[in-house]
Amino acid sequence: MDNERYSRQIRFRPIGADGQSALSRKHAVIVGAGALGSVVAETLTRAGIGALTLIDRDYVEISNLQRQSLYSEADAALHLPKAIAARDRLNEINPQVVINAHVLDASPRDLDRLTRGADLVLDGTDNFETRLILNDLSAKRKFPWIYGACLGSSGMTYTFLPGVTPCLSCLLRAGAVSGASCDIGGILAPAVQMVAALQSAEALKLLTGNHAALRATFLSFDLWRNQHIEVDLTAMKSADCPTCGTRPVYPHLTAGNRMKAALLCGRDTVQLRPARGLPMTLDQLAEALSRLDGKLERNPYLLSYSFEDKRVVFFPDGRVLVHGTDQIAEAKRLYHGLIG
Predict the structure, then answer these.
(1) What's this model's pTM, rounded to 2 decimal places?
(2) Residue 254 covered by a domain
């Protein structure tokens, strides 16, 4: 271990030489190498973690460069996969860290395989489908994971500790977290940096053995409105939760619980059917979408949201129609952009 490289971090007493040595033996997995994932990956690489595994399905685009600090115009011009571009840049920053890069749309089997032996998983995803898989794996295999999300000038984060905190399924059932992504609502880079800083700080606490310093609250903020809120969610832990309750079944780890998609012939429309329905009620979804710039319409039978040349219709039974595309991948991206 190069103590000179990490000298300023070692001088920070809660970490010290012992904590730095412990960090150099740890392995973290970052799922999603976009805005949050790229910042967290750079922070942990500079801090001297032993190994990082990066998982991402996307490639670099010019619109990413406003907030995704690892990437360049050259990466965007080449449409380089984010996991590969991040690995190459991180190797330049600190060749002492082992960087594993995987370009894939992570399935339960992929995530089960790639998180084995990891000390920590960090959320850099843009959708609850993947987060719920991570949540089930965390509860089943007892590894901690750190949730993060941001939209516009706001962000939120929470540290999930199996057996201690409520899990993500508990929070979704209680309506404590909601979706929408920066693809639809836009994003300010400082909001990304704030969430990533909070995630990285919690990661360093966990990886250096400073568990007593962990923040026990769900934290949300809005930098534009100068708001900062912390809430103790301990009471939301549910004994009948299918993921972390007394009789867990880990519902999101089976193939039957993946989203189903079908092209509606001749209608320029894709139908999506999330395996377990929408992660929020139509009322909650309407409230979230009302903060965006599109046109929101509601009747007793459905909720419709239109923007640009697309219209997304949500039904109470969980079905979703995405009008204006015949591409399933695009439909899923639009869905996750709105729901998270």
Answers:
(1) 0.80
(2) no
Confidence of residue 54 (pLDDT cuts 50, 70, 90): very high
What is the pLDDT at residue 292?
84
Q: Is residue 238 scored above 60 in pLDDT?
A: yes
Q: What is the DSSP string of 256-282?
A: GGSPEEEEETTTTEEEEE-TT--SS-H
247 vs 2, which has greater pLDDT? Answer: 247
10, 11, 18, 115, 233 from 4: Cα distances, Å: 9, 11, 15, 31, 41
Cα(97)–Cα(48) distance, rounded to whole angstroms? 7
Residues 13, 184: Cα–Cα separation, whole Å = 43
C-alpha to C-alpha distance for 123 and 157, rounded to whole angstroms: 9
* Contact criterion met (CB below 8 Å) for 164 and 318: no
Is residue 151 in a domain? Answer: yes
- What is the C-alpha to C-alpha distance for residues 132 and 167, in angstroms, rounded to an integer? 9
Closest CA to 5 of 49, 52, 46, 50: 46
Q: How far, in Å, CA of 250 to CA of 136, rounded?
A: 5
Q: Which of 236, 270, 299 corresponds to the end of one domain?
A: 236
> Quick one: 190 and 331 in the same domain?
no
Position 317: which residue type? D
d(CA 214, CA 191): 21
- The CA-atom distances, in angstroms, between 211 and each of 142, 215, 237, 260 are 15, 9, 20, 40
Q: Which domain holds residue 323?
A: 259-339
User: Residue-wise over 328-339: b if at least 16 C-beta within 10 A, else e?
Assistant: beebbbbbbbbb
Q: Are residues 40 and 93 in the same domain?
A: yes
Domains of the chain: total: 2
